[in-house]
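Researcher: Structure for this, please.
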Amino acid sequence: MNPQVAQQVNRAFDRLFMDQVARAIKKIRAPWTPRHTGRPPHSPRVVIFCCILKVMTCRTYEGTEAYVACMADDIQRLFQVTRVPGHSVIHRGMHQVSLRYIRKLATMVVVECRHQGMDIAVDSSGFRTDSTSTWFDIRIRHENHRRDFLKLHIAIDIATGIIHGFTITPGPAHESPEFKRLMRQIPTVGTVMADKAFSSRKNCQLVADKRGTPYLCFKDNVTERSGGSFAWTRSFRDYHDHPDTWMTIYHRREMVEAVFSSIKQRWNDSLASRHRWLRWRELALKVLVYNIKQLLCYQRAQELGVDLWTPLE
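Model: Predicted structure, token format:
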């Protein structure tokens, strides 16, 4: 990334992040309807805002409470409230918010960067869970080296590095069926690149139906037989007739590896939640937080009139 852009965003990241999240939260309906019995409830929008801050800062619920208390003036100004929630309210909010709401919020954040004909790269990566298999090890009296994990599948825009589609599955699930779900979240595409795990005739045809050109790396045992997908045959012939050109375009997908690296280095490659359904929400919030950070960099590059990326020398 352009150092000029990254430095300006990182210098005031907390303030810029909170402003961007607050605008997105205010544009859609509240994640749930509060009960009006007992003590006055906290605003659901403020609670989900604090849940996002928890993932952004990689803190515990108690640590998030302290951070929110330090930022109380800013939060009260953004949402026009008189108090901020504590750690127990934030914890309950994480239980209450739905994955559908997080997806809607993630779409709202990046909608201004979505355009027709984006060059898309698709890939998957695992996020480990720290608290698995302990009781199983005790029961079998043997240390189990196999750990549970969730798999995140993403489709990114090569030009900006922003995630425009994502799905989450259990670790052993296969990647290929997720390709259709990822493409469903994106309008017409340009070039679509993915590795062998996503390579199939149906996926090639799906890209062609969206007016795109598939560059899905072929497995060693495949043939050019179309099987009802003319896009597969066309791509297979291009691969064998012009392998160097084909692979040069295909290797642009390496951008997606940089996205996973950025998420894991800044917001950890593990999921701290103990409950299975909370792990899915935590991982979805990691995607949201990454997208907001990338959007801030994109907006700042537009304001400065410079390129978002700088070539390596």
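Researcher: Any notable elements?
Model: The first helix runs from residue 3 to 11. The chain has a mean pLDDT of 90.
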